[in-house]
Specification:
This protein is α/β, with parallel strands linked by helices. 46% of the residues lie in helices and 13% in strands. It has a single domain, classed as 3-Layer(aba) Sandwich (Rossmann fold). The chain has a 7-stranded parallel beta sheet with strand order 3-2-1-4-5-6-7, with helices on both faces. The chain binds 1,4-dihydronicotinamide adenine dinucleotide. 1,4-dihydronicotinamide adenine dinucleotide (NAI) is lined by residues 11-12, 14-18, 36-38, 41, 59-62, 87-90, 110, 138, 140, 183, 185-186, 188-190, 196, 220, 223.
Length: 284
């Protein structure tokens, strides 16, 4: 895939990984729409970029109508999009049993519906354009590794991974690749997610634990640089690889997880008359 001259749309592009992707795409000669809910962050990002090929678009990815409108604005200014990075995401660390429906609606709305809205908006346009392209959905190592506290986050990221893998099959005949980005810790602003929580979904929120936010902020200082993640992501896109694992140290942990999954199988006698895998193959 040749990046130069293509138009890219990056959600959550005003900070962290998204901004790293924007810089990397510009360096490859792309035009880039940066979509983000934060106008202050968009303005700050634009200043640091100082580039004519960038368009800031204020967007809440959880909004279907907002997404379609943002896509129209981006394509009118920069031309048809053939590279899509569904990257916007937020974090909320609390167990599922301690969460409210407002918590679910907020995190699912951004982390899962935001990706769905990106795909539903752009996949038909990219197919109709007929110039191939690529979609990268940002999940996380939390799309494989679970804990109690990231319960809702885990749920959304597992879903993004599953959705991306299915989409990869259906878009391949159109020359459109799909990848899922699974970082570990990143040097980013995700610890400040609560600042972008909509008032309408704040009724059921627990009071913000500012000591915990401070701890997270400190932890994220040790995260991987977004520019490194972005470079590894574009390399994977070029190679049309599905999984993008920028942090090599998680390989052993995944081996353990897959081992634990396989260990749950038992040597039950198999139905002699029919191999049940045939049914699954038929669904594909
Ligand atoms: P970040 O907070 O630095 O950047 C995310 C951007 O998304 C922010 O600019 C924020 O304003 C924007 N955003 C939030 N809600 C939005 C909405 N409703 N609509 C549009 N934009 C919205 O965070 P980071 O870390 O760069 O996050 C990017 C992605 O990476 C997320 O999907 C996150 O879950 C994922 N990730 C982050 C990790 C980390 O350690 N920070 C680890 C693994 C995955």
């Amino acid at each position: 895939l040749d990046f130069a001259g293509r138009t890219a749309f990056v959600t959550g592009g005003a900070n962290g990984i998204g901004l790293g992707l924007v810089r990397a795409l510009l360096a490859q000669g792309c035009k880039v729409a940066i979509a983000d809910i934060r106008e202050d962050a968009l303005a700050a990002a634009l200043k640091t970029l100082d580039n004519q090929s960038v368009l800031p678009v204020q967007l809440d990815v959880a909004s279907r109508a907002g997404f379609a409108d943002a896509a129209d604005r981006a394509e009118a200014a920069l031309g048809p999009v053939s590279l899509l990075f569904n990257n916007a995401g937020i974090n909320l660390f609390q167990t599922i049993d301690e969460s409210s429906y407002d918590d679910w609606d907020w995190v699912m709305g951004v982390n899962l519906n935001g990706v769905i809205n990106g795909v539903m908006t752009f996949a038909p346009r990219m197919k109709a354009l007929g110039q191939g392209g690529h979609i990268v959905n940002t999940a996380s190592m939390a799309s494989f590794l679970c804990g109690g506290a990231p319960g809702i986050y885990n749920t959304t990221k597992f879903a993004v991974r599953g959705m991306s893998e299915s989409l990869r099959y259906s878009l391949a005949p159109h020359g459109i690749g799909v990848s899922v980005l699974c970082p570990g810790l990143v040097k980013s602003h995700i610890y400040a997610s609560d600042e972008v929580r909509p008032a309408a979904l704040s009724g059921g929120a627990k009071p913000v634990d500012s000591a915990a936010v401070d701890r997270l902020e400190q932890l994220h200082q040790f995260g991987m640089e977004p520019d490194v993640i972005a470079a590894r992501t574009l390399e994977a896109v070029q190679e049309n690889r599905f999984h993008i694992f920028p942090h090599p140290e998680f390989r052993d942990e995944l081996a353990t997880v897959f081992g634990e999954i396989l260990a749950d199988f038992r040597d039950y006698p198999q139905d002699a008359g029919f191999d049940q895998r045939v049914g699954f193959e038929a669904m594909r």
